[in-house]
Amino acid sequence: MLSEDDLAPADEELLGLLQEGRITAPYAAEETGYSTQYVRERLTRMVEHGNVKKIHEGLYEIIEDPRRR
Fold first, then answer.
1. Which InterPro entries did the record assign (predicted)?
2. What is the pLDDT of residues 14-44, one digit of tens each?
């Protein structure tokens, strides 16, 4: 699991969107202004650390918010 200290500004924004519900990388990119590729990289990192789950091809949901530990 990532800790709050491990988060980049983009991660904070993505976690905020995930708190509202499931997201896709293109949607998150549009909402945050980051590139879709960068959003995918950040989401993949959070999946690898167990904070986010990829529930379907391109669809993500939060498991544990590192800001709430």
1. WH-like_DNA-bd_sf, WH_DNA-bd_sf
2. 999 999 999 999 999 999 999 999 999 999 9
pTM, two decimals, is 0.92
For residues 19 and 62, is the Cβ–Cβ distance under 8 A?
yes
Confidence band for 9, pLDDT divided at 50, 70 and 90: very high
Domain ranges across the chain? 4-64
The CATH number for 4-64, chosen from 1.10.10.60, 3.40.50.920, 1.10.760.10, 1.10.10.10, is 1.10.10.10
Q: What are all long-range contacts of 35-39, with beta carbons under 8 Å and residues at least 24 apart? A: 38/10, 39/10, 39/14
